[in-house]
């Protein structure tokens, strides 16, 4: 058997070499442009508003308006400064309080065009340009410089969750590992498979479907963690595996 394989390879050496070269070139092109096409994929998936999901967000972020800024100047104006980590295309603008100062971070520079288009629709928010950085490596943003931090669908892909959890007030909405195994064991198995084979992390830039961030959040030294497990009302069947979600507010 081995002899036959070696003989075939010898007789088809040029063909095999050509195929390997083509695959190598394709791989280089795909990985070199991954950030660009991932930004477009996320824009395509979020450009249409999903009313039921927006209602969930509206309810979750409603209490942001009740915070009082630690900055004397902002406190006089009755506004707060918010940091959004992993801002992407900017899908949370509609849920931020009027007049707030918004600082945003994302590791993918190709989100800028979509983010800028969205921010133009909300002149009531003082939003800054995107700072290109990873959520777990934001040395340019000092501790205590913001009043609240928002993360949505971020912890599934960061390398070091603990470094994101250093803030005083954290609003989070994350998809998680399936938590009702009696009803949805198939979904848990699919989450494991798509993550293990690398397909989902490749398409969605490192996203791990079967990650559960709650142990890290609950062990990060917050004095109070309010959390709700729920199934996100996503209308697209493609995201059925992302329906198990948690949302909450953690304060130190």
From TrEMBL:
Residues 83-166 form the Methyltransferase type domain. InterPro entries: Methyltransf_11, SAM-dependent_MTases_sf, Thiol_S-MT. The chain crosses the membrane at residues 6-26. Keywords: Membrane, Methyltransferase, Transferase, Transmembrane, Transmembrane helix. GO terms for biological process: methylation. GO terms for molecular function: S-adenosylmethionine-dependent methyltransferase activity. It comes from the Eukaryota. PANTHER family: METHYLTRANSFERASE LIKE 7A, METHYLTRANSFERASE LIKE 7B. This is Putative methyltransferase-like protein 7A.
């Amino acid at each position: 058997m081995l002899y036959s394989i070696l003989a075939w390879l010898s007789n088809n050496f040029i063909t095999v070499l050509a195929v390997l070269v083509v695959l190598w070139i394709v791989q280089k092109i795909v990985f070199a442009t991954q950030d660009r096409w991932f930004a477009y994929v996320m824009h395509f998936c979020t450009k249409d508003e999903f009313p039921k999901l927006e209602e969930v967000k509206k309810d979750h972020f409603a209490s942001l308006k009740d915070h009082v800024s630690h900055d004397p100047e902002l406190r006089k104006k009755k506004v707060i400064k918010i940091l959004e980590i992993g801002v992407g295309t900017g899908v949370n603008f509609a849920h931020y309080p009027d007049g707030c100062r918004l600082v945003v971070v994302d590791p993918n520079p190709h989100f800028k065009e979509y983010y800028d288009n969205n921010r133009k629709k909300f002149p009531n928010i003082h939003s800054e340009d995107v700072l290109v950085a990873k959520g777990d490596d934001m040395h340019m943003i000092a501790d205590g410089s913001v009043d609240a931090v928002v993360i949505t669908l971020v912890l599934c892909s960061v390398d070091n969750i603990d470094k994101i959890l250093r803030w005083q007030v954290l609003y989070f909405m994350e998809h998680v590992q399936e938590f009702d195994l009696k009803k949805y064991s198939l979904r848990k198995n699919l989450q494991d498979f798509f993550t293990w084979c690398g397909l989902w992390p490749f398409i969605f830039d490192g996203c791990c479907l079967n990650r559960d961030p709650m142990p890290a959040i609950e062990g990060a030294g917050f004095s109070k963690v309010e959390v709700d497990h729920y199934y996100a009302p996503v209308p697209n069947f493609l995201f059925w595996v992302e329906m198990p979600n948690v949302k909450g507010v953690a304060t130190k």
